[in-house]
Amino acid sequence: TEGKMTMVKMWSGGVRFGVEGKGFDPTEGAVAYEGGADARGDVKVRSTLHSAVLCCNTTLREVTDEDGQKRWEPRGNSSEAPLVVAARKVGLTEDVAAEYPRVLEIPFSSSRKMMLTVSDMSSHKELCDGGMALEAGTKYLAVCKGAPNMILKHCTEELSPEGGVVPMSDASRQAALDIVDEYSSMALRVLAIAVRPMAELPFDAAGEDLSTDDKFAACRSGLRLVGLVASIDPD
Question: Which residues pair with 166 in a beta bridge?
Fold first, then answer.
């Protein structure tokens, strides 16, 4: 399992989920509630994982070794591999470019501590099949994935246990941070996934004077926490 970072836990809308399986094989293991019931159709699980893959550049494919053995291999960023594999486990593919064209990408940096993308959602009424509903008039969706403490400070909303949207209180922000601490204490690598549905871009797309940081700041406000994901690094 060398270097095969694998998602093992998720948290969304105050609900805990376990992710089964190991390595990069998306056909092994599902996403389950704490009691063991199948959670692959849960709106919070689907919203979190689909948002995550909208903000990924990693792909997964099955390859055949020289000795004829088939194996699954991610191409791209190793920290994104667990997101892509987990999304496949609930039937969501990372091949989203055609259906959700990306109009902006701001890469992870040591100062920003997150990656941000904006995708065109104009042909969608919900985030994905079985995902959260998008408000009428939503044309774009900003997605942030990265350091939970950095993302949570910009969140004003979160998913409810039913998969609806509720305001984020100080208490609920602390509850999310407590989950981050709990997962981190288990030596898991925790990422927060947050979104912002938008009727229009919050900056002048034709403006040539806008820096990447200006666009980043404009898109990163008023975020909605969709979930936390936690992966184990076998190294």
Answer: 158
Q: Could you tell me whether strands 114-120 and 70-75 are parallel, antiparallel, or unpaired per DSSP bridges? A: unpaired
> Is 223:202 a contact under the CB 8 Å cutoff?
no
CA dihedral defined by 194, 221, 205, 165, rounded to 10 degrees? 50
Radius of gyration of the chain from its Cα atoms, rounded to whole angstroms:
17
- Are 9 and 48 contacting, i.e. CB atoms less than 8 angstroms apart? no
Q: Tell me: the pLDDT tens digits for 121-135? A: 999 999 999 999 999
Asked whether the predicted pLDDT for residue 1 surpasses 50, the reply is: no
pTM score: 0.94
Whether the CB-CB separation of 235 and 92 falls below 8 Å is answered with no
Residues 212 and 140 sit within 8 Å (Cβ to Cβ): no
